[in-house]
Amino acid sequence: MSEGKSRLLIVASRGTADGLYPALILATTAVSQGKEAYIYFTFGGMKLLTKQMAETIKPSVDLGLSKEELEQLLAKGGMPSLVDMLKMAKESGVKIYACSPTMNLFGLKQDDLVDVVDEVIGASAFLQMASDPKTLAIFI
Amino acid sequence: MKMKMESIKPALTLDARGDMCPMPVMKTNKAIQQVEVGQILEVLATDPASKPDLEAWSKMTGHKIIAFQEEDTSPKVYKFYIQRTK
């Protein structure tokens, strides 16, 4: 992390469309505002970083929309798919971190992850980043 | 101090009508790099959050909203003139 800039660090822990879009929206907007942004994908959130699972992510029951309905509404608003939004976030400078305990849990190897991942980190590295006074850490 | 819109000549227009949050801000952030420092970018948006969101973006980045107008259409179109400052 570079000195001076304020940072947004997001934990994306849910594996649903309505769990992941807010993380991507906030991180890309933070970069637009000149901040550094990081997303730490963990537990369900790791689906988006997993090749075999990324395309299968659905909205939660709580949202009350089907995958198709949500995709149609988002497309109408000029919003990319989750997979494209992740690529866009990466291209705009958002750093993407994968959670190593979750990889153990699901038996994932580095080869199973999409190629946007910057680093695989664990709780200790995350907490060290989060404890920086210029970092705002939020859980989604 | 806001300027009169009619007297301003934008160097580039970004049409973000129909786009929802966060696309207008992301596109504006890209488009501002395509005009020279001092030049004006015109942004058209229909997202009702575009005014507070672009104002916040302007505060954070320093690029200046020199004029704003709401057009009485359906849906409402928000028009911004933004000067690149750096």
TrEMBL record, chain A:
<dbReference type="Pfam" id="PF13686">
    <property type="entry name" value="DrsE_2"/>
</dbReference>
<dbReference type="InterPro" id="IPR032836">
    <property type="entry name" value="DsrE2-like"/>
</dbReference>
<protein>
    <submittedName>
        <fullName>Peroxiredoxin</fullName>
    </submittedName>
</protein>
<dbReference type="InterPro" id="IPR027396">
    <property type="entry name" value="DsrEFH-like"/>
</dbReference>
